[in-house]
Amino acid sequence: MSIGSSSLLLSIGASLALSGCGNFANFGKVEQGRVIAYDKEARVATVVAETPDSPFGALPPVKVRLPEDPDEMGPAPTPGKLIRTDLQGHRITIFDSAAGQFRTIDYTPVKEVHGVAKAPGPPKIDREARTITIYSSRQKTVLTFVATDDLLALPPDTWRPGDTVRYYFKKSGQALRMMNVTRTDLAKS
């Protein structure tokens, strides 16, 4: 490459940078997390953002306004507060809305059914038998465990994992695009 072509490339690069094409600060950011609350009327999802520092996610949860353009939104997210199921350690981690914290619960299993490809339905809270039945899609397992009075008193969405969403934003708290990772079949894309 000659000195003349190097100068030409350098001046084209400088022109693009000065014109704003090189301003990467305007590109925005992408976050991903689990939806723990969803207000359809207000068009706001409350999300526990994923983080490499915690297996559960980052606290406090963030409120994210849905994209103003409905075409920039995938399927509406289903909220849930079941964060993690540890079958080997017999522990369940939920998001406790009242405390604003994660809560880990030791449980006594009644029944585990492995290899279940799809959730058999919503979580089942059986107050007579004093059990709760949940589904772990990551482990493809239906779990029934003994429930105490305080667990039976928690809202039903406590026992359902919230959908995972990925959203693009430039201004914190306002999504420009949002994809429901849980409900989007990327193989069909």
Describe the fold and architecture.
It is a single chain. β5 and β6 form a beta hairpin. The chain is 11% helix and 39% strand. With 189 residues, it is mostly beta strands. It is built from two helices and twelve strands, in the order αββββββββββαββ. The mean pLDDT is 88. The two termini are 42 Å apart. The protein has two domains: 78 residues, Copper binding periplasmic protein CusF (OB fold (Dihydrolipoamide Acetyltransferase, E2P)); 75 residues, no CATH class. The strands form three sheets. A five-stranded antiparallel beta sheet has the order 3-2-1-11-12, with no helix packed on it. It is globular and about 55 Å long.
Gist of the model:
By secondary structure, the protein is mainly beta. It has helices spanning 3-19, 149-152; strands at residues 29-39, 44-49, 62-65, 82-86, 91-96, 101-106, 109-114, 124-126, 131-136, 141-146, 164-171, 174-180.
